[in-house]
Protein backbone atom coordinates (compact mmCIF):
# COMPACT_ATOMS: atom_id res chain seq x y z
CA UNK A 1 0.00 0.00 0.00
CA UNK A 2 1.09 3.58 -0.50
CA UNK A 3 2.41 5.55 2.45
CA UNK A 4 -0.16 7.93 3.94
CA UNK A 5 1.97 9.81 6.47
CA UNK A 6 4.77 12.21 5.69
CA UNK A 7 8.07 12.18 7.54
CA UNK A 8 10.01 15.39 7.91
CA UNK A 9 12.81 14.07 5.68
CA UNK A 10 10.39 13.14 2.87
CA UNK A 11 10.26 15.48 -0.11
CA UNK A 12 9.43 15.37 -3.81
CA UNK A 13 12.45 13.64 -5.31
CA UNK A 14 12.94 10.50 -7.38
CA UNK A 15 15.05 8.88 -4.65
CA UNK A 16 12.31 9.44 -2.08
CA UNK A 17 9.64 8.13 -4.45
CA UNK A 18 11.69 4.99 -5.10
CA UNK A 19 12.18 4.46 -1.37
CA UNK A 20 8.40 3.93 -1.16
CA UNK A 21 7.48 2.31 -4.50
CA UNK A 22 9.39 0.80 -7.43
CA UNK A 23 9.85 1.60 -11.10
CA UNK A 24 7.93 -1.61 -11.77
CA UNK A 25 4.97 -0.26 -9.75
CA UNK A 26 5.00 2.97 -11.78
CA UNK A 27 5.07 1.21 -15.15
CA UNK A 28 2.38 -1.30 -14.12
CA UNK A 29 0.01 1.51 -13.09
CA UNK A 30 0.56 3.99 -15.92
CA UNK A 31 1.16 1.45 -18.68
CA UNK A 32 -1.83 -0.93 -18.32
CA UNK A 33 -0.84 -3.14 -21.28
CA UNK A 34 2.45 -3.99 -19.54
CA UNK A 35 2.31 -7.25 -17.59
CA UNK A 36 5.75 -8.85 -17.75
CA UNK A 37 9.30 -7.67 -18.44
CA UNK A 38 10.55 -8.43 -21.94
CA UNK A 39 7.12 -9.43 -23.27
CA UNK A 40 5.93 -7.19 -26.11
CA UNK A 41 2.62 -5.35 -25.95
CA UNK A 42 0.78 -2.68 -27.95
CA UNK A 43 1.61 0.96 -27.38
CA UNK A 44 -1.10 3.23 -26.06
CA UNK A 45 0.92 6.31 -27.03
CA UNK A 46 0.21 5.80 -30.73
CA UNK A 47 -1.80 3.64 -33.13
CA UNK A 48 -0.21 0.20 -32.88
CA UNK A 49 -1.76 -2.72 -34.75
CA UNK A 50 0.66 -5.30 -33.36
CA UNK A 51 2.82 -5.57 -30.22
CA UNK A 52 5.99 -3.50 -30.67
CA UNK A 53 6.74 -2.33 -27.12
CA UNK A 54 8.51 -4.00 -24.24
CA UNK A 55 9.83 -2.88 -20.89
CA UNK A 56 13.32 -4.14 -20.25
CA UNK A 57 16.11 -3.86 -17.71
CA UNK A 58 18.80 -1.48 -18.91
CA UNK A 59 21.84 -0.72 -16.75
CA UNK A 60 19.94 -1.76 -13.64
CA UNK A 61 16.85 0.37 -14.37
CA UNK A 62 13.61 -0.28 -16.21
CA UNK A 63 13.26 1.17 -19.70
CA UNK A 64 10.19 1.46 -21.93
CA UNK A 65 11.27 0.79 -25.53
CA UNK A 66 9.04 0.97 -28.61
CA UNK A 67 10.77 -0.95 -31.41
CA UNK A 68 8.34 0.58 -33.93
CA UNK A 69 9.19 4.14 -32.89
CA UNK A 70 12.67 4.61 -31.38
CA UNK A 71 11.93 8.11 -30.02
CA UNK A 72 9.47 6.43 -27.64
CA UNK A 73 12.21 5.27 -25.26
CA UNK A 74 11.54 6.30 -21.66
CA UNK A 75 12.43 5.60 -18.08
CA UNK A 76 9.44 5.53 -15.72
CA UNK A 77 9.55 9.31 -15.15
CA UNK A 78 9.83 10.10 -18.85
CA UNK A 79 6.92 7.79 -19.64
CA UNK A 80 4.59 9.62 -17.24
CA UNK A 81 5.82 12.99 -18.54
CA UNK A 82 5.16 12.02 -22.16
CA UNK A 83 1.84 10.27 -21.57
CA UNK A 84 0.31 13.23 -19.74
CA UNK A 85 2.38 16.09 -21.28
CA UNK A 86 3.82 17.04 -17.90
CA UNK A 87 7.00 18.63 -16.74
CA UNK A 88 9.35 16.65 -14.52
CA UNK A 89 8.16 17.96 -11.15
CA UNK A 90 4.53 17.80 -12.25
CA UNK A 91 5.00 14.11 -13.09
CA UNK A 92 6.38 13.46 -9.59
CA UNK A 93 3.36 15.19 -8.05
CA UNK A 94 1.00 13.01 -10.09
CA UNK A 95 2.84 9.85 -9.02
CA UNK A 96 2.82 10.95 -5.38
CA UNK A 97 -0.93 11.61 -5.53
CA UNK A 98 -1.85 8.39 -7.36
CA UNK A 99 0.19 6.23 -4.97
CA UNK A 100 -0.72 8.43 -1.98
CA UNK A 101 2.92 8.86 -1.00
CA UNK A 102 2.33 12.04 0.98
CA UNK A 103 5.11 14.02 -0.70
CA UNK A 104 3.13 17.06 -1.84
CA UNK A 105 0.96 17.92 1.14
CA UNK A 106 -2.06 17.33 -1.07
CA UNK A 107 -2.22 13.51 -1.24
CA UNK A 108 -5.22 11.98 0.46
CA UNK A 109 -6.13 8.47 1.53
CA UNK A 110 -8.29 6.73 -1.04
CA UNK A 111 -9.58 3.27 -1.81
CA UNK A 112 -8.27 3.77 -5.37
CA UNK A 113 -4.61 4.04 -4.41
CA UNK A 114 -2.42 2.53 -7.13
CA UNK A 115 -1.41 -1.07 -6.45
CA UNK A 116 2.18 -1.88 -5.51
CA UNK A 117 3.99 -5.17 -6.05
CA UNK A 118 6.96 -5.04 -3.69
CA UNK A 119 10.59 -5.55 -4.66
CA UNK A 120 11.10 -7.53 -7.86
CA UNK A 121 14.13 -9.57 -8.92
CA UNK A 122 15.16 -8.66 -12.46
CA UNK A 123 17.81 -10.18 -14.67
CA UNK A 124 19.27 -7.64 -17.07
CA UNK A 125 18.79 -8.61 -20.68
CA UNK A 126 21.85 -8.63 -22.90
CA UNK A 127 21.98 -6.22 -25.80
CA UNK A 128 20.40 -7.62 -28.96
CA UNK A 129 22.75 -8.38 -31.83
CA UNK A 130 21.74 -7.07 -35.26
CA UNK A 131 23.39 -8.47 -38.38
CA UNK A 132 22.64 -7.51 -41.98
CA UNK A 133 22.90 -8.74 -45.55
CA UNK A 134 23.61 -5.79 -47.81
CA UNK A 135 22.42 -5.42 -51.40
CA UNK A 136 23.55 -3.18 -54.24
CA UNK A 137 22.23 0.35 -54.57
CA UNK A 138 19.66 0.69 -57.34
CA UNK A 139 17.45 3.32 -58.98
CA UNK A 140 14.67 2.90 -56.39
CA UNK A 141 17.10 3.89 -53.63
CA UNK A 142 18.13 6.93 -55.64
CA UNK A 143 14.51 7.97 -56.12
CA UNK A 144 13.69 7.60 -52.40
CA UNK A 145 16.62 9.65 -51.10
CA UNK A 146 16.34 12.16 -53.95
CA UNK A 147 13.14 13.43 -52.30
CA UNK A 148 15.37 14.85 -49.56
CA UNK A 149 18.21 15.87 -51.91
CA UNK A 150 20.45 13.25 -50.27
CA UNK A 151 22.91 11.49 -52.59
CA UNK A 152 24.79 8.21 -52.35
CA UNK A 153 28.08 9.83 -51.33
CA UNK A 154 26.46 11.46 -48.31
CA UNK A 155 24.66 8.25 -47.37
CA UNK A 156 27.94 6.35 -47.38
CA UNK A 157 29.58 9.09 -45.29
CA UNK A 158 26.90 8.64 -42.62
CA UNK A 159 27.04 4.83 -42.65
CA UNK A 160 23.79 4.12 -44.50
CA UNK A 161 23.52 0.88 -46.51
CA UNK A 162 20.68 -0.78 -48.45
CA UNK A 163 19.85 -4.25 -47.14
CA UNK A 164 17.77 -7.27 -48.16
CA UNK A 165 17.87 -9.26 -44.89
CA UNK A 166 18.64 -8.57 -41.26
CA UNK A 167 18.92 -10.71 -38.15
CA UNK A 168 18.00 -9.84 -34.56
CA UNK A 169 19.99 -12.35 -32.56
CA UNK A 170 19.19 -15.62 -34.37
CA UNK A 171 15.93 -14.54 -36.03
CA UNK A 172 16.09 -13.57 -39.72
CA UNK A 173 13.81 -10.92 -41.25
CA UNK A 174 13.35 -10.39 -44.97
CA UNK A 175 12.98 -6.84 -46.28
CA UNK A 176 9.85 -6.78 -48.43
CA UNK A 177 10.36 -3.13 -49.36
CA UNK A 178 13.42 -0.88 -49.65
CA UNK A 179 15.13 -0.92 -46.27
CA UNK A 180 18.36 0.51 -44.90
CA UNK A 181 20.85 -0.01 -42.10
CA UNK A 182 22.26 2.96 -40.20
CA UNK A 183 25.58 1.86 -38.71
CA UNK A 184 26.95 3.50 -35.54
CA UNK A 185 30.28 1.81 -34.81
CA UNK A 186 28.69 -1.62 -34.56
CA UNK A 187 25.33 -0.59 -33.13
CA UNK A 188 22.63 -0.47 -35.77
CA UNK A 189 19.26 0.91 -36.72
CA UNK A 190 17.14 -0.72 -39.38
CA UNK A 191 14.95 1.75 -41.29
CA UNK A 192 12.01 0.41 -43.33
CA UNK A 193 10.41 3.64 -44.62
CA UNK A 194 7.62 1.99 -46.60
CA UNK A 195 6.39 -0.22 -43.75
CA UNK A 196 3.53 0.91 -41.51
CA UNK A 197 3.80 -1.20 -38.38
CA UNK A 198 7.50 -2.03 -38.14
CA UNK A 199 9.42 0.89 -39.58
CA UNK A 200 12.33 0.80 -37.11
CA UNK A 201 14.46 -1.79 -35.33
CA UNK A 202 17.44 -0.84 -33.22
CA UNK A 203 20.05 -1.96 -30.69
CA UNK A 204 21.37 1.54 -30.07
CA UNK A 205 21.44 3.28 -26.70
CA UNK A 206 21.43 6.88 -25.50
CA UNK A 207 25.25 7.08 -25.70
CA UNK A 208 24.99 6.63 -29.48
CA UNK A 209 24.81 10.14 -30.96
CA UNK A 210 23.80 10.24 -34.61
CA UNK A 211 26.12 12.33 -36.78
CA UNK A 212 28.70 12.89 -34.05
CA UNK A 213 31.53 11.07 -35.83
CA UNK A 214 31.01 13.20 -38.96
CA UNK A 215 31.30 16.57 -37.18
CA UNK A 216 34.00 19.06 -38.09
CA UNK A 217 36.33 19.99 -35.21
CA UNK A 218 34.89 23.53 -35.01
CA UNK A 219 32.30 25.73 -36.67
CA UNK A 220 29.82 28.61 -36.38
CA UNK A 221 26.58 26.68 -35.85
CA UNK A 222 25.59 23.17 -34.89
CA UNK A 223 22.00 21.94 -34.87
CA UNK A 224 20.53 19.45 -32.42
CA UNK A 225 17.83 17.79 -34.48
CA UNK A 226 15.50 14.78 -34.45
CA UNK A 227 16.92 12.05 -36.69
CA UNK A 228 19.84 10.97 -38.84
CA UNK A 229 17.79 11.81 -41.92
CA UNK A 230 17.47 15.39 -40.66
CA UNK A 231 21.20 15.44 -39.86
CA UNK A 232 21.92 14.50 -43.48
CA UNK A 233 19.45 17.08 -44.82
CA UNK A 234 21.19 19.78 -42.80
CA UNK A 235 24.53 18.54 -44.19
CA UNK A 236 23.11 19.05 -47.70
CA UNK A 237 22.34 22.64 -46.67
CA UNK A 238 25.90 23.07 -45.39
CA UNK A 239 25.33 22.73 -41.64
CA UNK A 240 26.75 20.56 -38.90
CA UNK A 241 24.18 18.59 -36.89
CA UNK A 242 23.66 15.71 -34.49
CA UNK A 243 20.62 13.81 -33.25
CA UNK A 244 20.05 11.89 -30.05
CA UNK A 245 18.46 8.46 -30.18
CA UNK A 246 15.16 9.79 -28.86
CA UNK A 247 13.61 13.22 -29.23
CA UNK A 248 12.38 12.79 -25.63
CA UNK A 249 15.95 12.35 -24.34
CA UNK A 250 17.51 15.24 -22.43
CA UNK A 251 21.09 15.76 -23.69
CA UNK A 252 23.79 15.34 -21.09
CA UNK A 253 25.39 18.52 -19.79
CA UNK A 254 28.85 17.25 -20.75
CA UNK A 255 27.75 16.92 -24.39
CA UNK A 256 26.29 20.43 -24.52
CA UNK A 257 29.43 21.87 -22.93
CA UNK A 258 31.56 20.15 -25.56
CA UNK A 259 29.39 21.45 -28.40
CA UNK A 260 29.52 24.98 -27.00
CA UNK A 261 33.33 24.77 -26.83
CA UNK A 262 33.52 23.71 -30.49
CA UNK A 263 30.75 25.81 -32.06
CA UNK A 264 29.73 29.43 -31.62
CA UNK A 265 25.99 28.59 -31.44
CA UNK A 266 24.05 25.43 -30.58
CA UNK A 267 20.56 25.57 -32.10
CA UNK A 268 17.68 23.14 -31.45
CA UNK A 269 15.63 22.19 -34.53
CA UNK A 270 13.11 19.60 -33.36
CA UNK A 271 9.88 18.41 -34.95
CA UNK A 272 6.86 20.70 -35.03
CA UNK A 273 4.22 18.03 -34.36
CA UNK A 274 1.45 20.33 -35.50
CA UNK A 275 -1.08 17.50 -35.83
CA UNK A 276 -0.66 16.61 -32.16
CA UNK A 277 -2.44 18.63 -29.50
CA UNK A 278 0.51 18.19 -27.15
CA UNK A 279 3.18 18.84 -29.82
CA UNK A 280 5.77 16.62 -28.04
CA UNK A 281 8.63 17.72 -30.30
CA UNK A 282 8.30 21.37 -29.34
CA UNK A 283 7.47 20.55 -25.75
CA UNK A 284 10.82 18.75 -25.44
CA UNK A 285 12.66 21.42 -27.45
CA UNK A 286 11.49 24.01 -24.93
CA UNK A 287 12.71 21.92 -22.00
CA UNK A 288 16.13 21.39 -23.60
CA UNK A 289 16.54 25.08 -24.37
CA UNK A 290 15.50 26.07 -20.83
CA UNK A 291 17.85 23.50 -19.27
CA UNK A 292 20.91 24.35 -21.40
CA UNK A 293 20.21 27.95 -22.53
CA UNK A 294 19.99 27.16 -26.24
CA UNK A 295 18.22 28.70 -29.22
CA UNK A 296 15.08 26.96 -30.50
CA UNK A 297 13.74 27.23 -34.05
CA UNK A 298 11.00 25.21 -35.71
CA UNK A 299 9.25 25.00 -39.05
CA UNK A 300 6.05 27.10 -39.09
CA UNK A 301 2.81 25.13 -39.22
CA UNK A 302 1.80 26.86 -42.46
CA UNK A 303 4.33 24.66 -44.29
CA UNK A 304 2.65 21.45 -43.06
CA UNK A 305 6.16 19.98 -42.70
CA UNK A 306 7.12 18.76 -39.25
CA UNK A 307 10.88 18.55 -39.85
CA UNK A 308 13.62 19.77 -42.18
CA UNK A 309 13.50 16.61 -44.33
CA UNK A 310 9.76 17.09 -44.91
CA UNK A 311 10.34 20.76 -45.74
CA UNK A 312 12.94 19.87 -48.37
CA UNK A 313 10.70 17.14 -49.76
CA UNK A 314 7.67 19.43 -49.96
CA UNK A 315 9.26 22.75 -50.94
CA UNK A 316 12.90 22.23 -51.99
CA UNK A 317 16.31 23.43 -50.85
CA UNK A 318 15.77 27.15 -51.46
CA UNK A 319 12.80 27.35 -49.11
CA UNK A 320 14.65 25.28 -46.50
CA UNK A 321 17.67 27.59 -46.69
CA UNK A 322 15.49 30.69 -46.36
CA UNK A 323 13.67 29.19 -43.40
CA UNK A 324 16.93 28.67 -41.49
CA UNK A 325 18.29 32.10 -42.41
CA UNK A 326 15.08 33.87 -41.37
CA UNK A 327 14.59 31.82 -38.18
CA UNK A 328 17.94 32.48 -36.55
CA UNK A 329 18.06 35.53 -34.27
CA UNK A 330 19.38 38.69 -35.88
CA UNK A 331 23.15 38.95 -35.80
CA UNK A 332 23.92 35.24 -35.87
CA UNK A 333 26.10 34.40 -38.86
CA UNK A 334 24.94 31.36 -40.83
CA UNK A 335 28.31 30.88 -42.51
CA UNK A 336 30.22 27.81 -41.36
How would you sum up this structure, described in words?
- The structure is a single chain.
- With 336 residues, the chain is an alpha/beta fold.
- It has 3 domains: 125 residues, no CATH class; 73 residues, no CATH class; 116 residues, Dna Topoisomerase Vi A Subunit, Chain: A, domain 2, CATH 3.40.1360.
- Helices cover 29% and strands 21% of the residues.
- It contains 11 helices and 12 strands.
- The strands form 3 sheets. It has a 5-stranded antiparallel sheet with strand order 4-5-6-7-8. It has a 4-stranded parallel sheet with strand order 10-9-11-12.
- Strand 6 and strand 7 form a beta hairpin.
- The longest helix has 13 residues.
- The protein starts with 13 loop residues before the first helix and ends in a 9-residue tail after the last helix.
- The N terminus is likely disordered.
Amino acid sequence: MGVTTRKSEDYLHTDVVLSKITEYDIFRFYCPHFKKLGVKFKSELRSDSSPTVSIIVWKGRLLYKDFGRPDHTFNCWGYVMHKYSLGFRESLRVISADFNLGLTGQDTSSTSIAKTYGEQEFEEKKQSRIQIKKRDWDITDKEFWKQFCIGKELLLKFGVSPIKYFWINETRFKCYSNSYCFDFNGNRKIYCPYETDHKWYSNTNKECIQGYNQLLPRGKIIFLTSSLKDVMCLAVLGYQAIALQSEMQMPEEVLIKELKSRFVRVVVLYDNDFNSKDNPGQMMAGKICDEHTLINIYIPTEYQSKDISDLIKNYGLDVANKFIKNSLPHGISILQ
